[in-house]
């Protein structure tokens, strides 16, 4: 049973290690004390010394030996020249009360003393070790719950030591993975719904075409196929952007002026560069293909909802490059300006006939965040909406 606890619980191993360490330390200390006492006894052991007895004229009249007797003082055995033997004893010097140190003795044997020290250490160390390992066990239970599928499982972050850092790291990783899983679930659920609409329209168009399809039917089917192709492309791109480790392309120096000019020419939008903005301030590090996609998505969104008037303004503010795409559409309510960047979200009243699947603005947000920037929606002076991308130099 003890072996099983030892293998299964970390706190048992730490506790026993501390107790064993104190036990060994106690044995070593007692061995040192006993060796020192033995050396002291040897030093104080009786050693005979030669004694010479002199008369008043400093002439030797006898000789003998002096010996220190433990507890009895000095003893002299002398033999005079005339053959007589004398014995002289000198009492030990009295020590004042409290002025000396009596030899330390324990009323118990060495084994009992070690046992008492071990019990005292075991009782004192156990609560400390148990408190530490309880936090590790709580972390272990949280990881187990999370591994069993409860992605909302978190652990308490107590203290400021390594265990707290580990708990903090686990919570951050668990939150990120839960967010990714929920995002992928939402993406799949919405994608399956969005795919049904163009597929249904294509199926109905094929059934109504007959032997001689009209130009309108051909155009409708072509439009729906293009919508499907766009949806699949945007779903794949959104999935890659969610995966931080995915390789999105080579990072290069990108001239935003040239990039924006090409996209504006494609949709006949106006391009302006803010007065006093140097061309170097509109140069950023990034993946050209992704930045082009972000600008194109904003222009397509403005063309779709902006009543035919779209403009792009480039500027440099606060040490960052800024791309502002504005339209003259109905604008975006303030309460919905964050939600429009969610995947597959459409403003109330938006029709599928307008095109788009609700991923364009979500991709713009993912691309700008991948480049360390941000995107926001604002009101445009005089009516309409402005989408502003901010990218660090």
- What is the string of SSEs from the N terminus onward? HHEEEEHHHEHEEHEEHEE
CATH fourth-tier homologous superfamily of the largest domain: Histidine kinase-like ATPase, C-terminal domain
Mean of pLDDT = 78
Strand order of the largest sheet: 6-8-9-11-10
Q: So what's the CATH class of the largest domain?
A: Alpha Beta
**Runs with pLDDT <50, length 5+?**
99-104
Class of secondary structure makeup:
alpha+beta
Say what the CATH topology of the largest domain is: Heat Shock Protein 90
Major beta-sheet overview? 5 strands, mixed
**Computed Rg:** 46 Å
Q: Can you put this structure into words, describing what you see?
A:
By secondary structure, the chain is an alpha+beta fold. The protein has 3 domains: 2-88 and 108-135, no CATH class; 162-242, Helix Hairpins (Orthogonal Bundle); 252-392, Histidine kinase-like ATPase, C-terminal domain (Heat Shock Protein 90, 2-Layer Sandwich). It contains 8 helices and 11 strands. It has helices spanning 2-8, 10-44, 110-147, 162-209, 215-242, 256-267, 288-305, 360-370, and strands spanning 49-54, 60-69, 73-80, 85-90, 252-255, 270-273, 283-286, 310-317, 320-327, 374-379, 385-392. The protein has a 5-stranded mixed β-sheet. The protein has a 4-stranded antiparallel β-sheet with strand order 1-2-3-4, with no helix packed on it. The protein has a two-stranded antiparallel sheet with strand order 5-7. It is elongated and about 160 Å long. 17% of the residues are buried.
């Amino acid at each position: 049973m003890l072996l099983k606890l030892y293998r299964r619980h970390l706190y048992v191993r730490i506790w026993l290690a501390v107790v064993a360490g104190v036990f060994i330390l106690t044995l070593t200390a007692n061995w040192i004390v006993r060796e020192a006492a033995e050396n002291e006894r040897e030093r104080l052991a009786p050693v005979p010394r030669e004694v010479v007895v002199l008369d008043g004229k400093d002439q030797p009249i006898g000789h003998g030996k002096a010996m220190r007797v433990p507890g009895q003082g000095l003893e002299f055995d002398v033999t005079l020249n005339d053959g007589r033997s004398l014995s002289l004893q000198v009492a030990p010097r009295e020590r004042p009360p409290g002025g000396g140190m009596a030899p330390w003795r324990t009323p118990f044997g060495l084994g009992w003393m070690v046992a008492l020290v071990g019990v005292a250490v075991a009782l004192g160390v156990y609560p400390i070790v148990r408190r530490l390992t309880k936090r590790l066990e709580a972390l272990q239970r949280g990881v187990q719950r999370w591994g069993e599928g409860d992605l909302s499982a978190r652990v308490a972050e107590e203290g400021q030591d390594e265990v707290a850092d580990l708990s903090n790291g686990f919570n951050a990783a668990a939150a990120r993975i839960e967010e990714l899983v929920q995002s992928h679930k939402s993406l799949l659920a919405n994608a399956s719904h969005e795919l049904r609409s163009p597929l249904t329209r294509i199926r109905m168009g094929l059934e109504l075409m007959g032997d001689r399809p009209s130009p309108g039917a051909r155009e409708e089917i072509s439009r729906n196929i293009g919508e499907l192709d766009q949806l699949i492309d945007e779903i794949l791109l959104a999935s890659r952007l969610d995966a931080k480790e995915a390789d999105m392309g080579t990072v290069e120096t990108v001239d935003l002026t040239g990039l924006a000019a090409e996209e504006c020419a494609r949709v006949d939008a106006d391009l302006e560069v803010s007065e006093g903005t140097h061309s170097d301030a509109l140069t950023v590090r990034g993946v050209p293909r992704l930045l082009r996609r972000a600008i194109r998505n904003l222009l397509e969104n403005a063309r779709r909802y902006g009543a035919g008037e779209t403009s792009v303004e480039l500027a440099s503010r606060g040490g960052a490059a800024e791309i502002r795409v504005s339209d003259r559409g109905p604008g975006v309510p303030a309460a919905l300006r964050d939600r429009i960047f969610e995947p597959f979200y459409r403003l109330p009243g938006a029709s599928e006939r307008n095109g788009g699947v609700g991923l364009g603005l979500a991709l713009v947000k993912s691309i700008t965040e991948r480049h360390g920037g941000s995107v926001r929606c604002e009101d445009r002076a005089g009516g309409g909406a402005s989408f502003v991308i901010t990218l660090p130099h």
